[in-house]
Predict the 3D structure of the following.
Amino acid sequence: MPVESNCERTDQRRAGPLAAGLTAALMLVACAGPAGASDDGLRARLSAANPEAGAEAFEVCGSCHSVERDGEPLIGPGLWGIVGRPVASEAGFDYSDALLAFGGTWTLERLEKLIENPNAVVPGNTMGFYGVRDARERADILAYLLTLHDDDEVGGEPPEGEGETPTAAE
């Protein structure tokens, strides 16, 4: 059963090695109110998301992005701790001018839009990826990304008001 409004239950499909980090992060998102996922559709999809399926779907991304803590950037920047991190902040990675200009913070909403269609969200970026059109698959990938943080990191979302939802005009 999905996360409920009382924030006391979690989806039973999350059993497994990714469960602890995801459960904490999803509880933060589900209970955060305005500072959490502001898109109720995204919140609902995240509550039903499967991080193991997200890890499998992420394999295509893994050829360019490391997910190891303190991992070296590959073709793209490392994604450990990406949720809530400032955009274009991976030390030692040479970001495109378009991504540097995009700025802000990687919120769940921004990451979902980027995963859906990176060229529409950040025109002129150098990522050779055309996006994931399936909303459930994007939610699964986000659920996986939410597991990529240290236990003492907050994960989830930045403080209210940071990292607005992207548009192609940004």
